[in-house]
Design a protein that fits this description.
- The protein is of the alpha+beta class.
- A hairpin with a 7-residue loop joins β14 and β15.
- It is built from 17 helices and 16 strands.
- The strands form 6 sheets. The protein has a 5-stranded mixed sheet. A 3-stranded antiparallel sheet has the order 6-16-13, with helices on one face. A two-stranded antiparallel ribbon has the order 1-5.
- 44% of the residues lie in helices and 12% in strands.
Length: 425
């Protein structure tokens, strides 16, 4: 089979009328009790999940919900870590908690490998990506990233009010990932739509959700076909030509991995940049110290990642079992909250405080176990450069209106809008 043959047809045509798997009733509306009815898509969770998580950790450390067909929310570091490392009893075949469970037979590959993959396939699929995300490979992107950050701030000239999320943070990983995948940089607005549909649209009706997700894979298939016809030195061409077990990757593997890199590589990083700027805009003491002591930024950055960890992952229970005092059923969701783990006082001193010179900081913002983020070096570089350039160019800034800041709902949390006023208050 030639490369062209693999992508001549649309790999999605084999799915029939609708994807196989299990669908359940969509439940929305106010949460009655977070211990028995939690939902990560409700407005109060998006606005401020930390008091909710702290309360659950004290009175019901493994919360339950009947929404999404049933699921669990561990809030203690030790429970989150135990599940993250346990690939025998918990599957990663779907990592977005929604009203659809894909069939078990998509394991061990999953829909967006390697993050959706279980052992032993996961190890080999992840290994394919490692060369693109080494420290040396990431370092080669630093100059272009720094130039982009300066370019974005240059556009603020003559203004004292800007949206630090929409006009700064959200552009940086879009450009970096587009460049890595070989996508047109002007397609950035489409990427925003894909992200919203993938991570925040999980309570939409099934037909609408399928239609919206199809737009993402229509785009990816068009990009793949263009790269087949016009190969270049980027990750898409690399994946098109990559081999596993002596044969080139299945079309669904290529597209799924590209979807993962596009969605996860953008939303997580712009959320971390935005949350860090939000903290500095409302905390003049920390902002002033970092301006005066720029060498402290790498340490402060790790603290921002701990306290405002953007990512929550999901798992599916493999079989009925009793686990740490609760009765889990096969195919129950687990909402694996790394943000909750990062604020567990049993693991971190002054867990609910932002300590920008915290010396010991073994946070789990990038996950734990075999699925620890493959792009952590890239994310750290983008966050560091984004903050360095901003603080160098804009040492004085404050929230224009704290109530005007909006946050994303779902499993990746960060500011969607962040109006800040530039200059001394």
């Amino acid at each position: 089979m030639s490369v062209d043959d693999r992508f001549t047809k649309d790999f999605r045509e084999t799915r029939g009328e609708a994807p196989a798997g299990t669908r359940n009733e969509i439940v929305t509306g106010p949460v009655a009790d977070w211990a028995t009815d939690f939902s990560h898509l409700e407005p109060e969770w998006a606005a401020d999940p930390y008091p909710i998580q702290d309360d659950l950790r004290r009175r019901c450390p493994i919360a339950h919900t009947d929404r999404f067909g049933g699921g669990w929310l561990p809030t203690r570091y030790e429970d989150v870590a135990a599940i993250a490392y346990d690939t025998e009893r918990f599957s990663s075949r779907s990592i977005v908690m929604s009203n659809f469970r894909p069939p078990r037979d998509i394991a061990p590959v999953g829909g967006v490998p390697p993050i959706s993959s279980d052992p032993p396939f996961h190890h080999d699929a992840r290994k394919l990506l490692l060369p693109a995300f080494t420290k040396s490979a990431v370092a080669r992107r630093e100059a272009a990233t720094r130039a982009l950050c300066h370019e974005l701030i240059d556009a603020f000239q003559g203004r004292d009010l800007v949206d630090a999320a929409r006009e700064y943070a959200q552009h940086i990983p879009v450009r970096v990932i587009a460049d890595m995948l070989g996508f047109p940089p002007e397609d950035g607005p489409q990427f925003r739509e894909f992200i919203e549909n993938s991570l925040e649209g999980v309570n939409r009706p099934p037909d609408e959700r399928i239609e919206r997700m199809d737009k993402l894979f229509d785009y990816l298939l068009a990009q793949i076909r263009d790269h087949v016809d016009n190969p270049r030195d980027d990750l898409t061409t690399y994946l098109v030509n990559a081999e596993l077990y002596g044969r080139r990757l299945d079309p669904s593997h290529v597209a799924g991995t590209m979807a993962l890199l596009l969605i996860a590589g953008i939303d997580t990083t712009w959320s971390a940049i935005g949350a860090s700027l939000w903290h500095l805009a409302k905390t003049p003491e920390d902002r002033g110290r970092l301006v005066a002591e720029p060498g402290l930024l790498p340490t402060a950055m790790e603290e921002f990642l701990r306290v405002y960890a953007p990512v929550t992952m999901a798992r599916l229970v493999k079989d009925d079992m009793r686990w740490n005092g609760v009765d889990m059923k096969a195919d129950d969701w687990i909402l694996l909250s790394f943000p909750a783990a990062n604020r567990d006082p049993a693991q971190f001193q002054r867990a609910d405080e932002v300590v920008i010179d915290r010396e010991v900081n073994r946070h789990v913002a990038f996950g734990l176990g075999i699925h620890r983020c493959v792009g952590s070096h890239l994310a750290r570089m983008e966050l560091r450069i984004a903050l360095e350039v901003w603080l160098e160019r804009i040492p004085e800034f404050t929230l224009d209106d704290p109530a005007a800041v909006t946050w994303s709902a779902g499993q990746v949390r960060g500011p969607r809008t962040l109006p800040v006023r530039i200059g001394a208050a």
